[in-house]
């Protein structure tokens, strides 16, 4: 085992393992006891899809882009629908908006449960992975699987399928579930709410490294509710801007070491972050009552700056998703049309919604007949990339005394704080130390 | 109880779509008592393995030095699977992880067979590669051979 003191040159490189959700590698260079370089390549950009969308009809982007991610297809569908409807000047009735929020709750439950229970919790409980954790904490893993199943049930009823929903269309849905069908899910969702609350208690009991970052937080914020499928942008330094102004505020830059474009705020030198910590810190006053109580009981303040505590915030957002799903089901009344017509017209449209791991932005330019002339997709992971690199820089610097195995483990945990798409790989970094 | 064939993978990612493609071919055979499903992610296996006597899982695989299109059959027995995600599946939380998680939770079916097809290209948006296309028939045969005699 290599064990180097400060003052020597080190280079930590990590090459990728095969996996589906992304392509990753990490390189950390240490010179004279200082971390001089951190490069992370963790996301494969959807450029192919942007190119493929050109020439397609205006009704196609939701279905096509949902294929980009097996974990958050609803996010792609919702941002695409909103952008196309914006381009066509169509507003969606309130009940369709609520049904979209309900579907999205299902995805939050599925995605957050997967990350909290099977990818991140083993880090905190001291296991190499979920399988080893299951041997000692079977009840915990069973609870996670039960929660995920509740998310699956919502997705199946509203979306038509547990993964890659087929019921979503521009303008709404092909079919709306009936109130009776929705109410039949109630017992399972009540149980899920209890399980989500137990998740908050579990996560709140973990030990967290003493580490804080000061990234600019960026999130959607809506009139009334915690941001999921709706809202306009706000930032932690008090700026706000419309979804249509995203391109004026955010620049995407090519960096040599990554396939992905790095996003940065044009007027802010440091990195910015999207995702649960940003959402929570900018919308604490929008938490529904049970989630707010749970956050308080877990010791979370109105903002959270420790990325390792993101697992607690994710658990609180599980409560939000269950609580909101129950609220929507209880208030549902049948009778509305499942969709509204979205006749094409020439124009540019923007859509942004809160994917489980952060804000997902779509922009489409349409020809008069609806043909897509140009498409832009900015996923949350490419927006968080610079922030993750910044975290690693500070984090590794304070832990150079650790041996390679432990440092690798802790770096993986630090990256997983952001639930990047690559976190589908529970162990994706093979860290090797080279003497400088 | 019926036999279950599970195809795992994402058809938008080149050879990663081989699992669902093979599953679709098996479904077309209309074998009696054989249910065929596809999942995008292996974790779904944990939820669906129990409740069947015979399960055959087909997925893209990436092993070091493996020949693209080659078909590998692994009968899951009492010994834990090697957990090298790259060797048995192309997914992050891989098929081997899902199987072992199911084992830890007492959810394994009586007989479980994994059919891996060595992948060449799993880039987002890529088509199925030539070698994997050529290996499709062999993969379908391997899945059918792993089913109980009554279904064949």
Mean pLDDT of chain B: 86
> Which regions of chain A contain 5 or more consecutive residues with pLDDT less than 50?
1-7, 13-23, 423-436
Taking strands numbered 1, 2, ... along the chain, how are they ordered across the largest sheet of chain A? 3-2-1-15
SS elements, strand count of chain B: 5
Biggest interchain interface, per-side counts: A-B, 39 and 30 residues
Mean pLDDT of chain A: 88
N-to-C CA distance of chain A: 17 Å
Treating each run of at least 4 consecutive H or I residues as one helix, how many helices of chain B? Answer: 5
H-E order of chain B: EHEHEEHHEH
Q: In CATH, what is the class of chain B?
A: Alpha Beta
GO molecular function, one term (chain B): peptidase activity
GO biological process, one term (chain B): proteolysis
Keywords (chain B): Aspartyl protease, Hydrolase, Protease
Protein name (chain B): Hydrogenase maturation protease
Give a structural overview.
The complex is a heterodimer of chains A (436) and B (152). Chain A is α+β, with helices and mostly antiparallel strands and 436 residues long. In chain A, 43% of the residues lie in helices and 18% in strands. Chain A contains 14 helices and 15 strands. In chain A, β12 and β13 form a beta hairpin. The N terminus and C terminus of chain A are likely disordered. Chain B has a single domain, classed as Rossmann fold (3-Layer(aba) Sandwich), CATH 3.40.50. Chain B is built from five helices and five strands, in the order βαβαββααβα. In chain B, α1 crosses α5. Chains A and B meet through α1, α4, α5 and α6 of A and α2 and α4 of B. Chain A: Pfam families: NiFeSe_Hases. Chain A: Keywords: Oxidoreductase. Chain A: This is Ni/Fe hydrogenase subunit alpha.
List keywords for this structure.
heterodimer, A: alpha+beta, four-stranded antiparallel sheet, four-stranded mixed sheet, about 45% helix, about 20% strand, disordered C terminus, B: about 150 residues, alpha/beta, Rossmann fold, 5 helices, globular
């Amino acid at each position: 085992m290599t064990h180097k003191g400060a003052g020597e040159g080190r280079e930590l490189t990590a090459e990728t393992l095969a996996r589906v959700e992304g392509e990753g590698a990490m390189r950390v260079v240490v010179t004279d006891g200082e971390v001089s370089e951190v490069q992370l390549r963790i996301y494969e950009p959807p450029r192919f899809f942007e190119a493929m969308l050109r020439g397609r009809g205006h009704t196609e982007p939701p279905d096509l882009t949902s294929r980009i991610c097996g974990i958050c297809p609803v996010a792609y569908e919702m941002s695409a629908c909103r952008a196309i409807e914006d381009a066509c000047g169509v507003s969606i009735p309130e009940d369709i908006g609520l049904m979209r929020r309900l579907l999205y709750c299902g995805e939050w439950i599925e995605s957050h449960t997967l990350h909290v229970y099977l990818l991140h919790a083993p880090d905190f409980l001291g296991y190499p992975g979920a399988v080893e954790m299951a041997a000692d904490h079977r009840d915990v893993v069973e609870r996670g699987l039960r929660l995920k199943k509740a998310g699956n049930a919502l997705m199946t009823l509203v979306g038509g399928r547990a993964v890659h929903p087929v019921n979503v269309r521009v303008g709404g849905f092909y079919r709306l579930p009936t109130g009776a069908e929705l109410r039949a899910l109630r017992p399972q969702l009540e149980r899920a709410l209890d399980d989500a609350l137990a998740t908050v208690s579990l996560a709140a009991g973990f030990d967290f490294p003493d580490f804080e970052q000061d990234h600019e937080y960026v999130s959607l914020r809506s009139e009334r509710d915690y941001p999921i499928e709706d809202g306009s942008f706000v930032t932690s330094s008090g700026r706000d801007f419309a979804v249509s102004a995203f391109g004026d505020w955010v620049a995407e830059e090519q960096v040599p070491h990554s396939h992905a474009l790095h996003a940065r705020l044009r007027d802010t030198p440091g990195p910015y972050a999207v995702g649960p910590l940003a959402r929570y810190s900018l919308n604490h006053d929008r938490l529904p009552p049970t989630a707010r109580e749970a956050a308080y009981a877990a010791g979370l303040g109105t903002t959270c700056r420790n990325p390792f505590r993101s697992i607690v915030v994710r658990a609180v957002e599980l409560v939000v998703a269950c609580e909101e799903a129950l609220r929507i089901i209880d208030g549902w009344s049948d009778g509305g049309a499942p969709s509204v017509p979205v006749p094409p017209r020439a124009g540019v449209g923007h859509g942004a919604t809160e994917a489980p791991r952060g804000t997902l932005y779509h922009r489409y330019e349409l020809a008069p007949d609806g043909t897509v002339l140009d498409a832009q997709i900015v996923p949350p992971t490419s927006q968080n990339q610079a922030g993750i690199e910044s975290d690693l820089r500070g984090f590794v610097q304070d832990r150079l005394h650790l041996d390679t195995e432990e440092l690798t483990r802790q770096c993986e945990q630090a990256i997983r704080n952001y639930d990047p798409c690559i976190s589908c790989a529970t162990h994706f970094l093979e860290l090797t130390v080279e003497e400088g | 109880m019926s036999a279950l064939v599970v195809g795992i993978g994402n058809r938008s990612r080149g050879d990663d779509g081989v699992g669902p493609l093979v599953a679709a071919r098996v479904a077309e055979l209309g074998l009696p008592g054989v249910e065929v499903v596809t999942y995008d992610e292996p974790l779904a296996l944990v939820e669906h393995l129990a409740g069947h006597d015979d399960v055959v899982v087909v997925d893209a695989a990436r092993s070091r030095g493996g020949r693209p299109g080659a078909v590998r059959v692994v009968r899951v027995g009492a010994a834990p699977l090697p957990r090298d995600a790259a060797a048995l599946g192309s997914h992050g939380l891989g098929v081997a992880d899902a199987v072992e998680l199911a084992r830890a939770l007492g959810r394994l079916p009586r007989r479980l067979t994994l059919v891996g097809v060595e992948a060449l290209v799993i880039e987002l948006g890529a088509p199925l590669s030539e070698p994997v296309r050529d290996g499709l028939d062999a993969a379908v045969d391997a899945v059918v051979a792993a089913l109980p005699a009554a279904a064949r």
